[in-house]
Amino acid sequence: MFGLLLAIQACTRTSQNGQKVDPTPVIETEQPSTANFGTSIFKAVGNEPSWVLQIDEQQQMQLKTIDDHQLNLLTSVSEVTRMSDGDAIRLQTQREGKFNVTLIAGSCTDNMKGNKFGQTVQVMVQTPEMDKPVLYKGCGNYEGAYQVNQKWILTKVDGKAVPKMEAAAMPHLNIQLFEGKMYGYSGCNNINGAVAMKGERLQFGPIAATKKACRDNTIENAMMQTLNSKAQKFTIDKKTQELIMKSDQHTLTFRPER
């Protein structure tokens, strides 16, 4: 059982109406965890005072604060839920009181250095000693190979550009490894299915698709063959930030949506 948690709202996110939420620190204390934390796949940061939230490959979440309290909280994710707006997931934990983290896809700006991040982080905390839950906000990014964990727009098939269309009509993949799911559009049909990272390969399947008939299935055929290929490997280009998926038949190039 964990003690009380310190959580600090330290980053702001610009909403659609241009408003920002000011940071409001709330301080409690807790005993440090003795469990082992693995390789970080997600990191969120905050300021005044400094804090770091990390998630590892085993879906453990660790919160550390660099202040007079030197807090260290480590707990495991017990449930992942996609929110109704489709752009956010909630990571729920099982502990006395309440502790969950919501990751919202979209630009988030650090309120001290102005650094840009790809995810807004909301932490909801309520310990048995609190009268009501407290919401804290920050900014974060996926790390390493887990940067694949976002929505990708298909731009090239075997080096040939995909015709530009309205954003909603462009073939795309939304990869969500925390959920173990993929959502997408092949240029003809909507697709969805399971996904897992297996070394250099993204293992998809089974994949379900709608049954719409299209006159030209060249792009859809290339996407489906690549997703289902056991020879498929992926990389993220460090310079262009593009996702490259190669199989023994095709090469797909995606750009991040943001």
Detailed description of the structure:
It is a single chain. With 258 residues, the protein is mostly beta strands. Helix content is 4%, strand content 47%. The radius of gyration is 20 Å and the shape is elongated. Mean pLDDT is 82; it is low at 1-34.
CATH fold name of the largest domain, please? Lipocalin
Low-confidence segments, given as residue ranges, are 1-34
Shape: elongated
Q: Bin the strand percentage.
A: over 45%
Based on secondary structure, the structural category is mainly beta
- The SSE string, one letter per element, is EEEEEEEEEEEEEEHEEE
Number of strands: 17
Q: State the share of residues found in helices, binned by percent.
A: under 10%
Which architecture name of the largest domain does CATH use? Beta Barrel
What count of domains describes the coordinates? 2
Distance from N terminus to C terminus (CA atoms, Å) equals 39 Å
CATH class designation of the largest domain: Mainly Beta
Task: Please tag this protein with its features.
2 domains; single chain; mainly beta; 1 helix; Lipocalin; 258 residues
SSE layout:
Blueprint: E1 40-46, E2 50-56, E3 60-66, E4 72-82, E5 88-93, E6 98-109, E7 116-126, E8 134-142, E9 151-157, E10 160-161, E11 172-176, E12 181-185, E13 190-198, E14 201-209, H1 218-228, E15 233-236, E16 243-246, E17 251-256
Antiparallel strand pairs: 1-2, 1-8, 2-3, 3-4, 4-5, 5-6, 6-7, 7-8, 9-10, 9-11, 9-17, 11-12, 12-13, 13-14, 15-16, 16-17
